[in-house]
Amino acid sequence: MAGFNKVVTTYAEALEGLTNDMTVMVGGFGLCGIPEGLIAHVHDLGVSGLTCISNNAGVDGFGLGLWLEHRQIKTMVASYVGENALFEKLFLSGEMEVILTPQGTLAEKIRAGGAGIPAFYTATGYGTQVAEGKEIRKFDGRNYILEESLTADFSLIKAYQADAMGNLIFRETALNFNADIATAGRITVAEVEEIVALGELDPNFIHVPGIYVNRVIQGTFEKRIEQRTVRHA
Q1: CB 227: neighbour CB atoms within 10 A?
Q2: I need a labelling partner for 194 at 20 to 30 A (CA). Which of 30, 121, 148, 159 fits?
Q3: What's the burial of 102, exposed, middle or buried (CB within 10 Å: 0-12/13-18/19+)?
Q4: Is 156 helix (H, G, I), strand (E, B) or coil?
Q5: Residue 159: which domain range?
Q6: Which CA distances in Å does 102 have to 128, 137, 144, 157?
Q7: Per-residue model confidence as pLDDT tens digits over 56-86
Q8: SS3 content of the chain, % helix, strand, coil (to 5)
Q9: Is residue 60 part of a domain?
């Protein structure tokens, strides 16, 4: 990388500095919009003791399921984990700590972290296990939980297009958690489908400005379907 050019050509460059016991956020919703190559290369690096923050944990043998297979995740902060049998096994055996968070709360914890907001109040989860050990305050007669925001050492995201300065455009539902996660990492790495010349991206449609992105790498994507449902003819 030189100057404002954030493009790297190898996954080793993209993940430089990632070590054991770090906190890593990973974009995607189900298998939609996950940074497949970055996830696979973290698996190959063999780092362990990770705190992973992601909406879900992939599926058996793909996505974050690869990290689970090699026991690379120490603590998983997630919202939905119902597609991964190994995840269930690791949690029930005590091999992995799981912090389940309501989906909207998780999204706001990440967004707030990226915005420099340390905490916020939400009514979601009051009266449930989600509220245990957390400060409760009443506003206008309603109880709210104090939720602390989330940040990470590395944010790994997937985008549709990028330019060399790291400006990003996402495509359709692959926007999901990726845009917020991009803002919340000390080092944000974007794996993209296309890298275009400076000036080709319409500034009116950029979802994440390059100020939030440290490295960009062009990847190839299987785009596996998590649950394929078809209708009989």
Answers
A1: 8
A2: 30
A3: middle
A4: strand
A5: 19-100+151-218
A6: 11, 19, 14, 21
A7: 888 888 999 999 999 999 999 999 887 788 9
A8: 25, 30, 45
A9: yes
